[in-house]
Amino acid sequence: MPHIQQLPPHVADLIAAGEVVERPASVVKELVENAVDAGASAVVAELRRGGMGLIRVTDNGCGIARPELPAAFLRHATSKLRGPEDLGCIGTLGFRGEALAAISAVSRVEIRTRRREDRTGAVLRLEGGVPGEVEEAGAPEGTTILVRDLFYNTPARLKFMKKDSAETAAAAGLMQHLALSHPAVSFKFIKDGQEALHTPGDGRLDSAVYAALGRDFARSLLPVEGGGDGVRVSGFVTRPLQGRGSRAMQVFFVNGRFIKSQLLTAALEEGYRNQIMKGRFPGCVLAVTLPAAQVDVNVHPAKTQVKFAREQAVFDAVYHTVLDSLARQGGPVSPPPGADPGKTLNPRDDFFQSMDAKTYRDQGAKPVSPPAGRSLSAWNTERGGTRLSDSVPPLPRRETPFPPLRGDAPPPVVRQGPEETPPKEEPPLVPAIPRAGEELPGQEALEPQEEAPWRIAGEVLRTYIVCEDEGGCVYLIDKHAAHERINFDRLKAALEPPMRQTLLTPAAVEPGREEAALLLENLPLLEEFGFSCEDFGGGAVLVREVPADLDAADAAATLEEIAAKLREGRSPAERREALLHTMACKAAVKGGWKSDPAELRALVSKVQSGEVKYCPHGRPVAVKLTKYELEKMFKRA
Ligand code: ADP
Ligand code: MG
Predict the structure, then answer these.
(1) In the prediction, which pLDDT does 508 show?
(2) What is the pLDDT of residues 233-290, one digit of tens each?
(3) Which of 141, 177, 217, 304 could covalently link to 213 via disulfide, CB atoms 3.0 to 4.6 Å apart?
């Protein structure tokens, strides 16, 4: 073994520098953070050749006193911490006293600075961490640091530098995050002589978002504000319909520091559960503020991670703030601002992302008939098995939208196939809503009522309900999607087991051996959803009871679908959720069926109240067209 010896200081410095200064973007980050800590109201960062040519950061902050200038470049030299007690409540971005030492160890640096109270400024040059003399020099108030020849003395690191463009992009990203976390500071980023970012520094987060992340993203956002238990959450989140293809637009700050956090991501995404399309991610710019003593920022040399003392409180604050603000965003979905109104006519733009073609056909294009070869029979299948009203609400809930139709008379307006002609006695689809000026005598003096119910103009394509409100807006409602959501929320909230119906003749379902085994392994879960099943041997499952709001003729297909979901082998909570989706969908009124006016009315009022906005797969249930948008389509406006 060679002898053990302590490393010479400059080698130790180079090793330490490697942790802080990994790439040009890390230099930009440290210098700009110093400028913010110095109380600057304007910061300019300039990069040439991805930082390998030059990095220059100029601020109008407090400056550094001339006699202290060399000390700023010593390791562990800082003005931001005094004793160990300060480590518990760090309010500045920097605190480790390492950055200037590390940067100057691996480059050639020039710093020029002047405090407001000093008549002349000072300049200091360092090469590989070795300082020259401090000289008196003219300088504007604040500090300018110029870094050249980065990694000139660490060839190993130099070899690993990415392309200039990748380094520039990384630096630009950092500037964006710093700009967003400090809206009161104006940030400018110049790459190879071109201005790439300029925020106004007017103290408004929305201005910073607009300037840093662009108009389109800014327009996709909703404001959020909330919190509890000592944790405040504020900022913006994307509208559920404007989910992103990745998590790149999730920007979190904790006490003004941009960080990456799985906890915050999870809390945000939990807030969007069942509201966002599968495979899409919410974007956000969220500031979390809590007492400094409850966050440990000293976890990572680059200071991009933190530890929370009370993780649950932070999670809850973010989750509830997001959830509440999405819930408050009542009413149906408007086309995104600036969108082509013609395009919004297809609310299922992304339909095939979350459903396969077969499901689509089953739901949208044809009435559902009992699966061939099945011998299911039940008390409510003698009419052909597709009575919508039977398949809707569990019986005991008075507030459920559709009172079940019972008795001998055939249902007058609910029919199975699109082929049938409507009976003559069909009531008009337009309920009588008094129009303005039509009130009965004596009613004029009434206090202004809640918003008048939307007028239902009718149903088109046996799938969409067409309505209008008093303000001249037209709504198209996807009745299956809306109903599916209502079912989903009801099933999810149900504290009691669902109502069941006993099949007159128990039915043997043969979903395949493996699937049958899965169903039998999960009997308690099936029980919870209203299915009473048992082993029938030979890969068959005997079904005795099914949920009351499920069409008995659909039972076999539903159990097969459930088996397929169970097969995906997820956590019990996810499995339960998947089953909720299946049940909500199966019990929902299908596109392609004609619905009776009472059903349409019930669906419309849920959509109007804002209670129902997205189907459980995150698709919109309603699309709004303003009079102006219609007029535009007809070139009247
Ligand atoms: P830290 O930021 O962790 O304190 P640094 O090495 O980044 O460590 O900076 C060392 C010190 O130099 C800071 O504590 C601060 O007093 C001073 N300093 C650095 N940059 C600036 C600046 N732009 N304006 C004023 N003072 C600065
Ligand atoms: Mg610093």
Answers:
(1) 85
(2) 999 999 988 888 888 889 999 998 999 898 999 999 999 988 888 778 899 999 999 9
(3) 217
pLDDT number for residue 495: 62
Which residues does residue 222 pair with via DSSP β-bridges, in sequence order?
A: 237
Rounded CA-CA distance 267/323 in Å is: 10
d(CA 184, CA 346): 42
Pocket test residue of 19, 34, 78, 115 for ligand 1, highest count of atoms within 8 A of CB? 34
Tell me the backbone φ, ψ of residue 285, rounded to 5 degrees. Answer: -130, 100
Residue 97 in contact with ligand 1 by CB distance below 6 A: yes
Measured in degrees and rounded to the nearest 5, phi and psi for residue 288 equal -110, 125
What's the CA-to-centroid distance between 99 and ligand 1, angstroms?
8
* Length of the chain measured in residues: 637
pLDDT of amino acid 592: 66
Q: Is 102 in the pocket of ligand 1 (CB under 6 A)?
A: no
The pLDDT confidence band at residue 293, using thresholds 50, 70 and 90, is confident
Within 10 angstroms of residue 615's Cβ, the number of other Cβ atoms is 25
360 pLDDT higher than 90: no
DSSP 568-615: T---HHHHHHHHHHHHHHHTSPPTTS---HHHHHHHHHHHHTTS--B-
